[in-house]
Amino acid sequence: MFAYIVRRVLATIPVMAIVALFVFSLLYIAPGDPAAVIAGDQATPQDVERIRESLGLDRPFLVRFGEWLFRILQGDMGVSIFTNLPVTTMIQQRIEPTLSLMVLTLCLAVSIAVPMGVVAAWKQGTWIDRAVMGFAVLGFSVPVFVVGYVLAYVFALELDWLPVQGYTAFSNGFFPWLENLILPAIALGGVYIALIARITRATMLEVLQQDYIRTARAKGAGQRSILFLHALKNAAVPIVTVIGIGVALLIGGAVVTESVFAIPGLGRLTVDAILRRDYPVIQGVILLFSFVYVLVNLAIDLLYTLFDPRIRY
Amino acid sequence: MQRRTLFGLAAATALPAPAFAQGSAARTLRVVPQANLTSLDPVWTTAVVTRNHAFLIYDQLCAQDAKGEIRPQMVEGWTTEADGLTWNFTLRQGLRFHDGEKVLAKDCVASIKRWARRDPFMQVLQPSVAEVEALDDRRFRFRLHKPVPLLTMALGQTQFPCFIMPERIASTDAFQQVREAVGSGPFRFLADEWNPGQRALWAKFDGYVPRQEPVDGLAGGRAPRLDRVEWTIIPDSATAANAMVTGEQDYWEYPLHDLLPLLRRNRELVVQQRLLDGTYGICRFNHLHPPFNNPGIRRAVAMAVDQRDYMRAVAGNERDGWEACEGVFTCGTALATEAGSDILKVRNIDRARAVLKDVGYAGEKVVLVAPGDYPQINALSMVTADLLTRLGMNLELVAADWGTLVQRRVSKEPVERGGWSIIHTTSSGQSLALPVFHLFLRANGSNAWFGWPEDAEIERLRQAWIEAPDAAGQKQVGDALNRRAMEVLPYIPLGFYWQPSAWRRNVTGVFRAPATVFWNLAKG
């Protein structure tokens, strides 16, 4: 197992290298010029060119890529073209809100969606099943920003229970942290809950048809024990896979959610950087996202062995 | 149940002490700025949000009052001698930078030199300037080759202000960003608490010595009456509106026009015009390539333009939210004129379509680039797109973001090779008030603003205005410039809209000025 983990971790290196090349190339060929954004309307073309030179944007692709790669290998992601701050500092400033939002959403989604899916499978064909599936369709169909606006209107504007926007660091207390994040987490979690609930239901239905479930019933096992000890554990592999895939969904959704609720996270940092063509920031954040995604997949692979001892690497 | 009740019990045990004491919080103005503050150097970038930050931390030698007159600010005053070939400036006593150092004449000289390399206005005057030099700690002078009556206007302008930095910072190349934000203005920038994209903070500078005169535009006493100014970046307008309604924010610089009725309905909010100038719409042609290298075609399009359609698209139907302004100079200013602007009063699609045919439009492709992430400019673009379609032109509407547009507009290639035919932008009224810094009126070919119009007569008139001996002479040249511009059409003026701000009723001391500034404001 240890050898496997080491192998997988080492395998992330070529993956990250390909991602780095891809990201750098994509930005190179994408339209947009930070020098023109910086220079503004008053600048002459000569001014824009001077700024391009001072930023080193006039140098050949391979030279810039080589320098950037060399710095990355030393752990230096560069400096933002606009703010003059190190990209690592900007990421550090933004990582907590995004991480908080994703973790809370994940906890919320899993704790709601898995029981929902199990109950729907257990009560297949009843109104409970239909209600769960109806909710799932709704969760898939309604965009995150619409849910966000509705939640903000009801709970912040009308009831005045929660703030409309912003983020309070966890170090300032659990409740202020939760106060700011609960609405965004619910808004972002809708799609995720729908996805996990549907997969849980489908997998559970399949598992509940298995011989060993019938045997368990015949031996007098209780319904709760059958559902959660025998069936759910055997249905866990596809559910965990979907949860892992959903992390990418969360990263995408976080961009919208962070904008609607003015949460200063990595999603907004990415969008702002893209709009301004702040290349070092875009490259840094995308590399980070890719790395996180690779790690999540590794964690999921390892979890398989816990849920299904037959899986060995 | 109220939020505070809901969380009250938990807060009693779980919450640490609030970040600020009650009194301090009451003296913090929470602001939603018009954009994200990404750069701190007002010479390096022309972004308005950076200029607003600069007004908080830097001071100016002289500044514009509410009538547009230039008055002393950091300087006690100035004198001229030797037939206007020498200007002497003397700094006020007691001026200090935020790092504790005295403001000296050498700091002013270094700041002027750096700023002059980037400011288009000063670049026009620069050939007449022989030297800027410090005489002693408090006095510096300009030595000129020939008289420059507009010198203080350049130094005190609001469009690209000359902010004073310590010499060690101002000696940075004008095309490199400075690494420290140290000024001598009424507020200090809290760099350690700056999180670009989330918030930026300033604290009152206790060492600031304001002028004794009452505040008047950007002139007069810049007294800081708040302990802190805190900008929170809220990219979504609906969220910003909600934050204003619930009292989470105190001041919103640029509310979207669609949301003004919502804000006005709230009794706790004041929605008023604070900026002294409107924002002007600009439709710019690419003069290098067909079809708009043909002045007849430009004139045909202008005949179809109705500024009211454009302004309604941007600012809605509220009649006091916008105005038509059918000339190239800012309405309400000394040079404002409609002399020769008859073409903008035609406003007739059928006549324009007939003229278009007569002047030889042969179906050439027109590429209009519209920035979807810039609501006002996008609205202007959509109106032009509709108009060109109705004129029967072969339109390709390219939806892009602002970052793409500002790069594409640099291209001088034909549309088949990634060029463009029409773009739109907006400009503050200040920038269009005088020929000397009227960017869209330059017609010096490849050195002109994107679109590169070329017309020797416009350039000649512009120079004639600079050399005009008096206001009457300037006005006469201004009229001639407007007439010529309406023949050549380097761009089509699209009217202007007012951009109100919103603030909570307990914010006091709000005054009108050419820029958004926060001195004199207090929170009751």
CATH architecture of the domain at 279-497 in chain B: Roll
Classify the helix fraction of chain A into a percent range.
over 70%
| CATH C-level class of the domain at 279-497 in chain B | Alpha Beta
CATH class of the largest domain in chain A: Mainly Alpha
**Helix fraction of chain B by DSSP (H/I, runs of at least 4):** 25-40%
**How much of the sequence of chain B is in beta strands?**
15-25%
**Major sheet characteristics of chain A:** none
Instruction: Evaluate the radius of gyration of chain A.
Output: 24 Å
Give the CA-CA distance, first to last residue of chain B.
27 Å
Organism (chain B): Siccirubricoccus deserti
GO molecular function (chain B): peptide transmembrane transporter activity
Protein name (chain B): ABC transporter substrate-binding protein
Signal peptide (chain B): 1-21
Model description:
The complex is a heterodimer of chains A (313) and B (524). Chain A folds into two domains: 2-73, no CATH class; 87-307, Orthogonal Bundle (MetI-like fold), CATH 1.10.3720.10. In chain A, 78% of the residues lie in helices and 0% in strands. Chain A has twelve helices and no strands. In chain A, helix 7 (144-158) crosses helix 10 (223-260). The longest helix of chain A is centred in the C-terminal third of the chain and has 38 residues, at 223-260. The termini of chain A are close together. With 524 residues, chain B is of the alpha+beta class. Among the domains of chain B are: 59-171, Dipeptide-binding Protein, domain 1, CATH 3.90.76.10; 279-497, Dipeptide-binding Protein, domain 3 (Roll), CATH 3.10.105.10. Chain B has 17 helices and 21 strands. A seven-stranded mixed sheet of chain B has the order 8-9-10-1-11-19-12. In chain B, a hairpin with a 4-residue loop joins strand 4 and strand 5 (86-91). In chain B, helix 12 packs antiparallel against helix 14 (375-390) and helix 16 runs antiparallel to helix 17 (471-488). Classes of the chains: A mainly alpha (313), B alpha+beta (524). At the A-B interface, helix 2, helix 3, helix 5, helix 7 and helix 8 of A face helix 2, helix 9 and helix 15 of B. Chain B: Residues 69-411 form the Solute-binding protein family domain.
